[in-house]
Write a structure and sequence with these properties.
Length: 393
């Protein structure tokens, strides 16, 4: 990479001395360090959709529910069994309730207020790094639980549309007593693997809160009554929560970004149209969303998107941008990235567009971008400002 610089000399004269003339006058328009040129290059020569299934394990938020074509499910395992429980023969579990806190974000039917839940015990140990495709086959089959076994929960409620409103989801007290009995016994605890939470109806996927800072607020509440008393005791157990989401696979040629699953777009760029010895001084990459073909949850399409480039050697470079009023995302100040691509032996490279921030895992807006067949002003493209130093011409 060539570095072009200008060295300036400042002369401090005595207060009463006449300034010394250095050199000749600069006449605007006749003197320059370099000549700037601009070129717009298509950003889509070939596009590869990149699904990124990352574990969503014990995050601040999780998604739960289902729409006509998407679904979010949970694996939950109780931890930190109480050590001060009396012998199992000395108490009964009056109630066991999972505490869930709905949030503002809803995907699908944003008017849907239904929380419909069914739960089954998990039959084997599961990996915190698990993803949807490692749990369920393409036909929906799984070896982790069976819907032919007794349900440990079946519940439906119309939610109050207030963030952090608390919902108590009741579980089978007999199953809960069994969990407590085995959980306090270190030799039997390994038989417990938690339960799967499935949406049984509804037309939306809603965000729920799991953590408040470092504290878990999605807990299981047990109400216990000692057999020699009419008074109830209450104990709380924390849990570990894994969220799994599934959405339709984009069709060939369909440029789709989506959170939670996650779908990203790899875009190939060829800079061979630039002259030999060109130096990129500035670049702006732009993609445009098609709002009519996109699906947004409450709050609208993503405010932010991320653009990332991974050079053949070295660390990944990334930048973010905010959506404008025309549903465009312009990644400015990308000259350093495209200069690196220009330095590749074939002058070609691939950049990755993806959801950013909370939209990557905790929301699932499905953004469809205009592709290479759209109107010229809507196609993905990059505009480069470059120069060829005179000494290299």
């Amino acid at each position: 990479m060539y570095v072009i610089g200008l060295t300036a000399l400042f002369v401090l004269a005595a207060c009463n001395d006449k300034p010394t003339d250095l050199g000749t006058d600069i006449i605007p328009g006749t003197d320059s360090l370099y000549a700037l040129s601009s070129i717009t290059v298509p950003l889509v020569d070939s596009v590869v959709l990149t699904p990124k299934q990352s574990p969503i394990f014990n995050n601040t938020y999780f998604l739960f529910g289902k729409t006509d074509d998407s679904e979010a499910r949970l694996f939950i395992e109780l931890v930190n069994y109480p050590s001060n429980l009396p012998p199992a023969t000395d108490y009964d579990v009056v109630a066991a309730e999972l505490m869930m806190r709905p949030q503002y974000y809803i995907y699908g039917d944003t008017n849907d207020r239904t929380l419909a839940v069914e739960a089954y015990e998990l039959q084997k140990e599961w990996d915190p790094q698990a993803t949807w495709d490692s749990i369920w086959t393409s036909s929906g089959a799984t070896s982790y639980y069976s819907t032919g076994t007794p349900q440990v929960c079946s519940f439906s409620k119309t939610l109050v549309d207030t963030a952090d409103s608390l919902v108590y989801v009741p579980f089978d007290p007999v199953a809960a007593k069994r969990w407590l009995t085995k959980g306090v016994d270190s030799t039997l605890r390994k038989e417990l693997h938690g339960f799967v939470l499935l949406p049984s109806s509804g037309s939306s996927i809603r965000q729920f809160r799991n953590l408040n800072g470092q504290n878990q607020i999605m807990a299981m509440r047990f109400i216990i009554r000692h057999k020699d008393s009419t008074d109830n005791d209450t104990t709380y157990m924390e849990s570990v929560v894994a969220c799994f989401t599934n959405t339709p696979v984009p069709q060939p040629g369909e440029l789709v970004l989506q959170g939670s699953r996650v779908y990203r777009i790899s875009m190939y760029v060829d800079l061979n149209a630039l002259p030999r010895n060109a130096i990129v001084l500035g670049a702006t990459a732009r993609v445009n969303a098609d709002p009519a073909a996109s699906k947004a949850g409450r709050g609208g399409l993503d405010e932010l998107l991320k653009c990332e480039y991974v050079p053949p050697s070295g660390t990944a470079l990334s930048t973010t941008t905010r959506r404008d009023d025309s549903y465009g995302y312009a990644f400015t100040n990308m000259g350093f990235i495209f200069q690196l691509i220009l330095r590749n032996a074939d002058r070609k490279g691939t950049i990755l567009i993806s959801p950013e921030g909370s939209s990557e895992f905790w929301r699932m807006n499905r953004i469809r971008l205009h592709g290479a067949n759209a109107d010229t002003t809507l196609r993905p493209r990059v505009t480069l400002i470059y120069t060829v130093p005179k000494v290299l011409q």
